[in-house]
Specification:
Layout: H1 5-15, E1 20-24, E2 27-30, H2 31-47, E3 55-59, H3 64-75, E4 79-83, H4 89-99, E5 103-106, H5 111-117, E6 123-126, H6 131-135, E7 151-157, E8 165-170, H7 171-184, E9 192-195, H8 203-214, E10 217-220, H9 229-238, E11 243-246, H10 248-257, E12 270-273, H11 280-289, E13 294-299, E14 309-313, E15 328-329, E16 334-338, E17 350-356, E18 363-364, H12 368-374, E19 375-377, E20 386-396, E21 402-407, E22 411-414, E23 417-420, H13 421-429, E24 434-443, E25 447-455, H14 461-468, E26 480-483, H15 497-507
Amino acid sequence: MSNLIQKYFDKSANKNPKKIACVFNDEKISYQDLLSYSNQLACELKKYGVKQGDRVCFCLYKSINSIKSILGILKADSIYVPLDAFSPEKRMKKIVKDCKPRVLICDNNTQDIASRIAPRSIKIINLDKDKKKIKNQPKEHNEYKNSSSDLAYIFYTSGSTGEPKGVMITHRNLIECADWSVGELNITSKDILSSHPPFHFDLSTFDICACFKAGATLAIIPEKLSVFPAALLEYIESHKITILNAVPSLFSYLAKSGVLDKSRIPLVKKVFFNGEVFPTKYLSQWMKTFSKKEFINMYGPTEATVQCSFYRIKKIPKNLKKPVPIGKACSDAEIFAITNKGKKVKKGEQGELYISGACLSQGYWSNKEKTDEAFIQNPFNKEKEIVYKTGDLVYLNKQADYEFLGRIDHQIKNMGYRIDLGEIEAAMYSIPYIKDAVVVAYTEENTHILGFVVLSSQLNQEKIKTDLEKIIPKYMIPHKFFIIKNLPKTSTGKIDRVLLKKKYASKK
């Protein structure tokens, strides 16, 4: 086992240098060329003062440049922090302010954004404008200074206070993820893995790490194809993808679009999904259409490095109202649930899920308070052992597989993103004409985010939506707004969210 995740890439590059490492549309790059470029970028970063433990942000649209940046940053012994180039600049500025990067990487497409979000103290490298300087750097790399316990990346997720939280993931976390993925799921150098999630979403690290560990090829799927079902299937076919990994929202969208046919995507052998609940009726449709493909449900919060449990779906589900189980723990994790009486759940019982093991994050960057709330001492172990309190309610069935029941708090999964409803509410309250606001999630076939607002002046939904888009990403914007006179309260004075959900359901 390696002690640094980029060493897996180095090993695959040295073993098969001419093999294609990564493709994006018609652009391709070999393992050897990607190795040389990432080494050169690492040298350029060091020339800019980047040293061990420094953070380096990159703000890029989906492309091979993103993969070059990730590898270059890791090879500079530093920590990569991806920024969503489609996100509001206010949010990106918060992330930059919090992680304090030494350098921000961009290209010509994102230069203007980078200039606006980076303070003068942060140096900017433009991969297009600085191309010659990077190419003049040595193609060979010196010894790495990092150890497996050092951070590899920080991914920012939604926070209840309106401030994004930076989840810290180490090289050891990623190595364990790669080892389990390649071994358990039988990923080989002959495979071509899809890369559908954006690179600021933790699911993307599964594709990257598993691919480079196995010496396979990574096929990056352009963002725009997610709304063109037929074109997306054509892309999968033309790039000869063998392993398809994405969020259930995408698979559901394809199923509803009517493009699924048993003659399509013939080279895909395995279908993985993660990030949220896959509506069973659409999963069933996929399995009926592609009866010879393997389907695996994976579960895991960002704090557990992509996944901590998995479930092989061997039969087409008969009960379309019940999600498939999230299964049993991966080899790098231990999962257990605790009842509301403080005891471990037995078969037939439900409780809150806890996670421990080599997959577990070190906590939240520069946020000890939130870290101490979520990462706690294992109550069943007298020796020191940290476990992550997920806030997910699960049920342990007769087969000893866990089934996901929902969130205990107000966090949800939508389009694969973990969203804290409190962050949306905080954003809404920051708008002057909104007096009161509450956000609830209503789940039927899909999750719908509903915003209930009390306004100080007469405005329509589009105005609220337009103003919110300046503060939070589009995937956090409520699907529908209800303008009401007062927020209903419970007998204890709290906002009655249950009543709001009932009112919405009754209007459908």
